[in-house]
């Protein structure tokens, strides 16, 4: 079962995303912030799905750490800040995808499925 590391500081969104991805057949580990996600990066992951703007360690920092430890790891960002989404492409690891909030759960699941299929 593909493993997803989810980092999202919004409790309700984190819960919705976790449940939607689990129903789609993924094993999801949900973290409330970047530090919590960074603490489990040594495990094997198929995809990092992270908010960009979080208190403490942001999603870009988590993604850089993850990419350094797991070259080829699929990375997807979700953000409610359009300007951040535009800038993220410059500082994010190569191949990372950026989705802007608000976004429908079905759209996130579809994008995750696309990324997982593109091996």
Automatic annotation (TrEMBL):
<feature type="modified residue" description="4-aspartylphosphate">
    <location>
        <position position="51"/>
    </location>
</feature>
<dbReference type="InterPro" id="IPR011006">
    <property type="entry name" value="CheY-like_superfamily"/>
</dbReference>
<dbReference type="InterPro" id="IPR001789">
    <property type="entry name" value="Sig_transdc_resp-reg_receiver"/>
</dbReference>
<keyword id="KW-0597">Phosphoprotein</keyword>
<dbReference type="Pfam" id="PF00072">
    <property type="entry name" value="Response_reg"/>
</dbReference>
<feature type="domain" description="Response regulatory">
    <location>
        <begin position="3"/>
        <end position="116"/>
    </location>
</feature>
<protein>
    <submittedName>
        <fullName>Response regulator</fullName>
    </submittedName>
</protein>
<dbReference type="InterPro" id="IPR050595">
    <property type="entry name" value="Bact_response_regulator"/>
</dbReference>
């Amino acid at each position: 079962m593909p493993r997803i590391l989810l980092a999202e500081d919004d409790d309700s969104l984190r819960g919705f995303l976790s449940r939607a991805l689990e129903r789609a057949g993924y094993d999801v580990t949900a973290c409330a912030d970047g530090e919590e996600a960074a603490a489990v990066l040594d495990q094997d992951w198929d995809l990092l799905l992270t908010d960009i703007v979080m208190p403490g360690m942001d999603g870009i920092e988590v993604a850089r750490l993850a990419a350094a430890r797991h070259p080829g790891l699929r990375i997807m960002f979700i953000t409610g800040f359009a300007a951040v989404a535009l800038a993220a492409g410059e500082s994010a690891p190569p191949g990372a995808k950026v989705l802007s909030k608000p976004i429908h759960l079905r759209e996130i699941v579809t994008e995750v499925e696309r990324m997982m299929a593109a091996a």
